[in-house]
Amino acid sequence: MERRAIVAGNWKMNGSPESIKQLMQGLTSRALSELSCEVIVCPPNLFINEVMHLAGDKIQVGAQNVSEYAPGAYTGEIAAEMLSAIGCQYVIVGHSERRQIFGETDHQVAQKVAALLDERITPILCVGETLEQRDREETLSVIEQQLNAVLEQCGVEAFSKLVIAYEPVWAIGTGKTASPQQAQQVHAAIREWLAKHSEKIAQSVRILYGGSVNADNASELFAQPDIDGGLIGGASLKAESFYQICKSAG
Hints:
Layout: E1 6-10, H1 17-28, E2 38-42, H2 48-55, E3 60-63, H3 80-85, E4 90-93, H4 96-102, H5 106-118, E5 122-127, H6 131-135, H7 139-154, E6 163-166, H8 180-195, H9 199-204, E7 207-209, H10 218-222, E8 229-232, H11 239-249
Parallel strand pairs: 1-2, 1-8, 2-3, 3-4, 4-5, 5-6, 6-7
């Protein structure tokens, strides 16, 4: 089954009105419509509306996080139905920075997936292991635990409505990158895990790689049979580098 590649830019906590305007102008001036991949940008919540106005029909806009709760007395949080109301199509959940720095649990991430699916927003579900877990050869067991939380909360059909992003924690913002072979091995294992529950969904789900992807290494990573694009951090903040990564996928 052919899976359409995705390149999603995670801008993290970066940007100002001026820098975001320049970045979006730099992206929309390029020939994105000639690419076969989906192009997504996920700005800080404060700038989502502005980015949507600048994106036109070439770029889809997502958010970097969501609350697991419905609207109510949760100061500082943003509900899935709010993101839906302004037209968000994708939301990143379970990013390693959310898990590592802010203490989000597998169960909490699964609840966020459920909240997004209720609003027909596509979650980009991040999974991955730390360096210590990799050294202990726990990579697959850690990822299966993260996936099982979503399976238990939402059921196997949920995986037909989301995107998975494998992001080895040790390769995020460090300049280190899993080799294409290392990344492919984990992507294939994720697909094999899912195939135990649904072969059809396993073949259709898109699995992105996230971990210091740049214009130089993107082509070799995306050439792997089970890597369906990338979740891009720092390189998504520069129009030319992000465009080159999109070209590698498209």
